[in-house]
Fold Queuine tRNA-ribosyltransferase.
Amino acid sequence: MYKLIKQDGKAKRGELHTVHGVIQTPVFMNVGTAAAIKGAVATTDLQEIGTQVELSNTYHLHVRPGDDVVRKMGGLHKFMVWDKPILTDSGGFQVFSLAGLRKIKEEGVYFSSHIDGRKIFMGPEESMQIQSNLASTIAMAFDECPSSVASREYVQNSVDRTTRWLARCKEEMARLNSLEDTINKDQLLFAINQGAIYEDIRIEHAKTIAQMDLDGYAIGGLAVGETHEEMYRILDAVVPHLPLEKPTYLMGVGTPANILEAVDRGVDFFDCVYPSRNGRHGHVYTNQGKLNLFNAKFELDDKPIEEGCQCPACRHYSRAYIRHLLKAKEMLGMRLCVLHNLYFYNHMMEEIREAIEQGRYAEYKKAKLEGFEQGNIKIR
């Protein structure tokens, strides 16, 4: 159940009550594609850095180790030793990202595994069955994510199919949750709005899926090649047509500035690989911009990544030491940068929630963006 606590402009401060605990929103979900955050980050670390929700990938876990293995191990929570909420995406994004390895039909999608080439079929029912085996807190509906440059005709046909698939997902989820041997009988289902950068298709699809009474609503198919301005334009158009009393999730977004802008437009769930991916390359976020710790100017810098930061890296280590680890290709350097970046994102979400509660979100956002502009975090 989602409870809207406060609105400041369009920014929402809410709570989503789940079988695995309460999620305070706005929230950033830390991405652990194969049931682990890349960069040698354990679930015990996630507890320490303030992670509320971990996100794993249905397609990747189906391929390896196999959702049947995860089910036999008692579900994803038990398997990876994480007692807080987990969201699993549906495999639908792989319809986009593995374009050269798949064929889309009405019944579903035929893939060739990116690992060993074996044939895989995934449709709405299969996606729900895999996610039920994983026993995540929140399952995503199976959809197609069309390219932002696809033709209008292609996008309309794709969106219509995604709507039909959603009805099948909802029916199959209800069936699975009613079974005696289902691990998580309280699994939630989020729908996904699609439509590339065609506002009218997006709006019509939002209206249609809003009537289907799902547990939450995601906006997919953004941050896949369109400009930030186009993304904000689509959010301005679409979010007002999604239920205010349900969580709104912007998939795969984004930079700290993207998140600040999207919160301002009524979005309250986010995920992105940026903090872990950038961290693995020595790029770390601060309130004064993004630093590249490989730069020679940090060779003798005894300061932490950011003064006052309470992450495990900043509490103990200097920029100079972390730079040395990165240059020496020691895994600890990568790990410390990832921990810092995830802490930075999680802590920023805490600040956002507090600012909305206090009715000063516009002021907070302005100050935060101005701080980023001192460095080189991309603002637009």
